[in-house]
Amino acid sequence: MDSDLAEAVSSLKGVFEQRAVPVTFGKADPELVDRLKASLRIPRRYREFLLHADPVDVETRTPSERVRLVPSARLLDEQRGFCLDDAGALVQKPTAPGWRPSWIIVGHSALLGDPYFLDVSSPDAEGDCPVYSAMSGTDNWKPRLCASSFALFIRILALGMEVADGFAEEDLDMDDEQVFRDTFGPKIRQYDPAALKAGHWT
């Protein structure tokens, strides 16, 4: 992994340990990752993440959201009915209204079921691409930026876990959630002002 992604992953692993939240990272099978690259066109940085920190059982915990990352073994199945048809082939036309074939689901909200997805249509010079979310259960998928790159997405997940340390995990009231969001926003601004402006996290 390059230094930006490695630091983000290290921060995420560290805050899971600090908060004593159970988590399992592994290492994806390189042959599987090659197949995922061919099938889904996943970019280099996300492939490196799977090879070095496959999220076998990873779910963040904050007062406003819980993000469950998709492990490599389930990645293809997660795309069926979205960017892949039932036979596992990349679709040319969206199978869900408003869904683009270049959107690759990499996680879900464990609270709301909304997907988190990469837009692999135009990887940047680092071999990375932005992460979006969209509200499920609507007539049309309307993406909202969550992070300007996958590395920043992992960094933001770690920041959220850090800010959430000390908050109750059950029986939260609206005031607790608002205090969390107000504290979380400035942390995001330090790393990804565009993600903060998009408003998904706050």
Describe this structure as you would to a colleague:
This protein has 202 residues and is α+β, with helices and mostly antiparallel strands. It has a single domain (3-198), classed as SMI1/KNR4-like (3-Layer(aba) Sandwich). Helices cover 41% and strands 14% of the residues. It contains seven helices and seven strands. It has helices spanning 3-19, 30-40, 44-53, 75-79, 150-164, 174-191, 193-198; strands spanning 24-26, 54-57, 67-69, 103-109, 115-119, 131-133, 144-147. Strands 3-4-5-6-7 form a five-stranded antiparallel sheet. It has a two-stranded antiparallel sheet with strand order 1-2. A hairpin with a 5-residue loop joins strand 4 (103-109) and strand 5 (115-119). Helix 1 (3-19) packs parallel to helix 5 (150-164) and helix 5 (150-164) crosses helix 6. The protein is globular and about 45 Å long. The mean pLDDT is 91.
List keywords for this structure.
alpha+beta, globular, 41% helix
Give the termini distance in whole angstroms. Answer: 29 Å
CATH C-level category = Alpha Beta
Q: Quick one: biggest sheet?
A: 5 strands, antiparallel
**Fourth-tier CATH superfamily name:** SMI1/KNR4-like
The name CATH uses for the topology is SMI1/KNR4-like
C-alpha Rg (nearest Å)? 16 Å
Strand content: 5-15%
Derived structural class: alpha+beta
Order of helices and strands: HEHHEEHEEEEHHH
Number of helices: 7
The number of E-state strands comes to 7
The neighbouring-strand order within the major sheet is 3-4-5-6-7
Low-confidence stretches: none
CATH architecture: 3-Layer(aba) Sandwich
Q: Can you give the helix content as a percent range?
A: 40-55%
Report the average pLDDT across residues: 91
Q: List the domain count as a whole number.
A: 1
Shape: globular
